[in-house]
Each structure stands twice: as C-alpha cells, then as structure tokens.
Write the structure tokens for this entry.
Amino acid sequence: MEKSLQGAAAAQSHRYLNVAFLGEHASGKSTVAGHLLKLLKSSLTVQSDKITKKPLYASLFDTLSEERSLGMTINFHQAYAQTANTHFQFTDCPGYPKYFKNLLRGLQGAQVAVFVLDVNGACFEECRDQLTDQLTACYHGQVDNLVVCVNRMDHREVQWERTQYDEIVSEFRLVAYKIGYKEDQIKAIIPISGTQGDNLMIKSDRMKWYEGPTLIKVLEQVKVNYPEELKQKPFMMIVKSIHRVPCAETIVAGVVLQGSVWKDMEVFINSTRCISTSVKSIQAHCKSIAEASVGMSVGLQLKNLQAYEINVGDVVKQQAEPIVVKSKIKITASIVINRNVFTKSGLFKWQKINGHFHLGQATFKIEKLINKEGVEVAQIVPAAVQQGDIITCQLSFVQSCPSFQGTTATENPQLGKFILRDYGELIGVGVINEILNSK
C-alpha cells in the first residue's frame, strides 16, 4: 500500500482530464472539438472543403469514410492535447440516437461533459429527448462536471446577439435540474462559434456582453476530486479498447475506476476464463508513466496475453475472482424512470428488455416487479409512472454468457448502474442493490 501511495502522489504531479463532447448530431460538436484540438496542437493538418476551402475541423475526429460521407459521428473518437497545466483526452461521442451504445462507450470514464447546443431554438426543441438521454447517461455515469457551449453564434439570424443564447441557457438548465444536476455542477455556459473559434481559446470581442471564461479556461479550472476510499480500494479498470502492436504484447485501454496500477503489478482479467498476467508498461497520453491512479485514462501493455483472449467490457482487477455464468445471476435493482411513457405497453412480468452495463450489453427477463408503492404486481402501465419515479425489479439474464462484470452501486457507482432501453429509447436507469447467484 505504501508503494501505491507513493506512486499515486507521483501521478498527481501531472494533471490529467478526460473530456467528452456531446450534443445533438447536427449541433457542430465535432467541429468544436476539432477546432479546440487544432488550437492546442498547431502541427495538425486539417482537411478543407473542396468548394469553399474552409477548414473542416470535424475531420480531426470523424476519421471513418462513412462518417465523412454522412456528415455525422458514428463511433467515439479520442485525441490528446495539453496546456502548461493539463493533459487532456478529448472524446467526440456520437449524437445520433442510433449510435447511443457508442456514446455510452465514449462517455465511460469522462470527468467533464461538454454539451454543444445549436443556438437555433427550434433545433433544441426537436432534440430535447436526445439531450435528456445524454444528460441522464452523464448523471448516472458519475460525470459531475458540465460545460455548455451555445454554438453558431455567427449565424446570420443571430449575429452574435444575446437573445437566443439566453433562451437556450434557460431551457438547458430546466432539463439538467430535472435530471438531478445542481447549479454548481454546470461550470459555464459559453456562447461560441465552432468554425471561427470565438471563445474557444481567446475571448471574443464580438460578444462583449459575455463576461465568463473561454472554453479552455473553464476546462483548466475544473477540479476533480475522488473519495479517499476509492483511491484505497484494489485496482480496477474496464477494458474500453484493445490494441495489438506488432512485435509487442497486447495493449488494453481504459479508465482506472479505483485504486492504482503500477509496472510489474500482477492483474487478473475475468473474460471467458480468469486470466492472470502482469503489467509490462503503462501509457498515458502517448507517454510512458510508472503508475496510474483513479480517474486516469491509460493503456496497459500486458505480458503473455493474446488479443483474442480478452473482450471490450472485461474488467482488469488486482484481485482474482471466480467466473460466474450470467444465466445463473439474478439482479435486484431500483429502476429510475426517465420518461413518463417509458415503453409502448408498460413493464410486465417475464418481459424481455435490453440493458447496457458500462461497455457491455445484455438482455434481461423481469422475474419480479414492484411498483413505486412497494407492492409486487404483474404489470405497470405507462400511465402509472412519471419521470423520476422508482420501481424495483428482479432481473435475470436471458442468455448464458460468462463473466458478469457488475457490482452493487454501493461497491462501485460506475459498475453498479446500467441503462435500460426499449424501442431505441432510454426508459430508465438501473441501480443494482443486490446480486444473487442461483444454484
């Protein structure tokens, strides 16, 4: 433990911050993220529009040919930059509802969520459900810091004026407060132009009415504090991506959820079997480090491990645990309802429903259903619940699948929650109260 504390102190000498960019798919979030990245890393080459010759900052993140042809983000993409004080990991998350699963993967481990909103109020109204779903995923994913960028202030119908900005600010606060965010968690609401760069790095002289910080300044001022007990727990990290480097061991990337990891540490991976390996090296923001502590985004080079032996969503741990088959697990969870009409026909006993566990996905069967009054029932109709109501379910996995990676929410808040979706909509968030292993 003494070694862990020494290494954690060394890791803290450098400030690392994981920032996720979210918002409706046509709000210009990839442009905002790309322009900020270019301002921080001037050596990057940005593609230009073939006709207008204007820089396409979104191309720094939207690297897939399908994304560029469709003009939307499909997968999550990461990039690194730094200032004198902070090492940043920027993650551009997809905004289109069809790719919500990829958004959840990109959001995992984020410490700050930057919401990019179009100043056009009509667009906000049309995408209120998308914003609600994304804010819900942030809130229950332990993302405690929000920054809002009201984009396209240079639009010909806005012309840098304040009126529509104020409307967006008011609407966003209502949605965020309803989900559970507090005023002090919204660090800034900044009027910007993603294409022209106003208020990204330098204060704009075209919006003198705005007296707040620029985007980069507020990100540098965000303070992330983890509970001391989380730092003292045994190391744990969810595998976010897997990389096979020629002539080198397999590298697994993710965010440290608890504890610390250091070079030569023995670790265990619960996949199709319990795998024992050790850490050969640790990479953070493309640099080798001796140790990583809770909250840091890292890549671990693991000895004698083949890429096919591990899967995205597996958990790398300091302690070995027995494999448990998912079909033999029952979960008792409190479901926080996200929408009034949460399914087309309500929830009923033996119903099958989709769930997203951090980076994994599973189908559940409802074995027991208890309404908000605490009474066990066979069905709960949509009209009987409202947003924010809590119902209790006992769930079992439909298919036999090894290595369940969840815990109770008390043990670890990130592993102890899951998203419930039906008909492509986020209907609620599950908070795991108890995990039962059936015989």
Residues 1-12 have pLDDT under 50 and may be disordered. The longest helix spans residues 163-179.
